[in-house]
Structures are given as structure tokens and as C-alpha cells.
Amino acid sequence: MSAAARLPVIDVAVAVVQRDDGRVLLAERPRGKVSAGYWELPGGKFDAGERAEQALARELREELGVELDAAYPWLTYEHAYPDKRVRLHFFRVLGWHGTPHGREGQRISWEDPQAPSVGPLLPANEKLLKALRLPPVYAITNAGRYGVAEFMARLEQALEGGLRLIQVRETGMAPEQLAQFARRVVTVARRYGARVLVNGDETLARKVGADGVHLQADRLMRLSVPPSTRLWAASCHDARQLARAAALGADFVTLSPVLPTATHPEEPGLGWTKFTRLVHGYPLPVYALGGMRLELLETAMRHGAHGIALLSGIWDRVVAPRAEVRNS
Ligand SMILES: Nc1nc2c([nH]c(=O)n2[C@H]2C[C@H](O)[C@@H](COP(=O)(O)OP(=O)(O)OP(=O)(O)O)O2)c(=O)[nH]1
Ligand SMILES: [Mg+2]
């Protein structure tokens, strides 16, 4: 056992307070506390007998003078400092009242998680910022259903509507056709700053200039070394697979099937209760997959999901074009 593993773990509730414009509330650690001068997300240690949500509400009141109305559990991960280990229980704070201000004399600032202008941040927060850069919707291509030309039009429409993360998965295409299709998806995604993962094939992902690879669960379980692409994700269906993805350091996972799907309507799926149980305490962002519709995003988040993954529930939808997000 390493020295760090022997240190007791301190549970900490941490608030991800995000405005509609995506900016996140960061606070400077006050003078006199450990790591003074570092910037962090507001929060603090559980008091004896407190549950995570209670600690979160109390810390927001004490540190920022705001009352918590609604928070969804998000990631939970541990970080080892030289002299201690902390288990950070992150929550997305979606409702609060009052005006946040530094009640302990600390500076606070609403920051773009992509490029915070304050710092240094606590080293433990790096993973969190990476997770924050993942959008709420992950769309899986379905050109087999529409034909490539029609699909590309729908993809463009979804990108106009704000889609920023795509998985290329076309089981019916021959290799050359798939490569050509994946290239087209990457080209159009780039114009919107959207990221693309290719299902199952690292070599193809590199060849077409995609951001990474998305592995099926059986590949994940056989893997000894994680893919070296910028981004990688895996499909999980149970606790063992989730644990494996976490151990290998995936950027995110999908967990499925949550609800009955169009292709397997007779299968009940995990249901939200089991989904919540599986993702409770999990360190990586989880997209709920299976029977999802855009309307279910908030339900999924309430049950601990980072977001939702959609295969059919997105392309059928006519998304109103928003001229202002076009950056081609
Ligand atoms: N609040 C917060 N703490 C973090 C983050 N990342 C991280 O490693 N930590 C660590 C730093 C601290 O060792 C611990 C939280 O302790 P704290 O000093 O905020 O605790 P507290 O608010 O209860 O303060 P106190 O009662 O000890 O004065 O967790 C983060 O993003 N926010
Ligand atoms: Mg604190």
C-alpha cells in the first residue's frame, strides 16, 4: 500500500454553480486555510453525521451567503495530496437564491471553464474542468436510417441547434464508405467546434482526424492499455464495466439501456433507480443511453447523469436553426 492510500479520506461537498452562459463560480481559498491563494469550487468538509447534500447547503450558506434550492449529484472522485486524501462529491447547483459573495473575505469570480482567467486552481480540480467541457448531449450517428445525404442535413441542423459531441457508428457501412462518411462528419463538426469519436476503431479515428474513439464494453474489458487518442469513451452496462472504465481513465462512459428502446421495446432497461445506484459515487461523467429523448435531459441529470446519449431521439427532431451559433 502506498503512503497516500494509508491516509484517512476526508469527504468534501463541492458546488458546481453554473450560469446559463456556462460560466462557473470559482472562489479563492481564504488566507489562513490550507492551500490559501489557490482557486477552487466553493464547498467544504462534511460535519460529523452530515450527508453530502446537507454539507453542500451549509457550505454555500457559510461561504457565499446563498440558499440552495436544487442540486444534482455529479461526479465523486478522490485526490491524494502529500498529507491527505480528499473525496470530492461534486454537485451541479441548479437552483439557489441570494447573491453570491465571499463571506470569508475570499474573492469570487464567474469563469469560463474552458479558460479560467484566475488561478492557480487546486490540482484536484483539473478532472472536473475536463468533465465540464463535455456537453449535455452525445449523439450517435444513424445514417443507415436516413441515407448519407439526408443524414448530413440533419446533422448540420443539430449542430446549428447546439450539438457538440458526436459518435460515428454505422454498422452497415463497408470500410471505405465508413471512412468517407466519418471524414465528412469530422469536417462539418469542426466548423461548429464539435468533437467526434469513432466507434471501435482507433486507426480509423486517427485517419479521419477525429478526436477519439468510443469502445464497446467487450473491448473495454479486454483492454490492458487505454487508447492514446485525445479523448476516449466506453459503453457500459453494469458495475464491472463501469469500474473498468474508471480504472483505465476513460474521459466518459455511456450507461445503457436505461429505458426500453425503439429497437428492443420488450427489454425493460435498467430504469432510473438502478441507474442512480450504479452511478452513485462514480468518478467519470456518465451519459444515460437507451430510450432517451431531449426532454429527458433534466430527469437524467437529476438521477446523477452528466447528460444523455441519443441514437434516434435527436435526428428526427427538427431543430430550429440558430444563426448566431454558426461560426463557419
Ligand atoms: N471546497 C473545495 N475543496 C477542494 C476542492 N478541490 C480540493 O482538492 N479540495 C480540498 C481542499 C481542502 O483540503 C478540502 C476542503 O476543505 P475546506 O478548507 O474547503 O473545508 P471547509 O470549507 O469545511 O473549511 P474549514 O471548516 O476547514 O475552515 O478539499 C474544491 O474544488 N473545492
Ligand atoms: Mg471550503
From TrEMBL:
It catalyses: 8-oxo-GTP + H2O = 8-oxo-GMP + diphosphate + H(+); 8-oxo-dGTP + H2O = 8-oxo-dGMP + diphosphate + H(+). GO terms for biological process: DNA repair; DNA replication; thiamine biosynthetic process. InterPro entries: Aldolase_TIM, MutT-like, Nudix_hydrolase, NUDIX_hydrolase-like_dom_sf, NUDIX_hydrolase_CS, NUDIX_hydrolase_dom, ThiamineP_synth_sf, ThiamineP_synth_TenI. Residues 7-136 form the Nudix hydrolase domain. Pfam families: NUDIX, TMP-TENI. GO terms for molecular function: 8-oxo-7,8-dihydrodeoxyguanosine triphosphate pyrophosphatase activity; 8-oxo-7,8-dihydroguanosine triphosphate pyrophosphatase activity; 8-oxo-dGDP phosphatase activity; 8-oxo-GDP phosphatase activity; metal ion binding. PANTHER family: 8-OXO-DGTP DIPHOSPHATASE, NUDIX HYDROLASE FAMILY PROTEIN. Belongs to the Nudix hydrolase family. This is 8-oxo-dGTP diphosphatase. It comes from Pelomicrobium methylotrophicum.
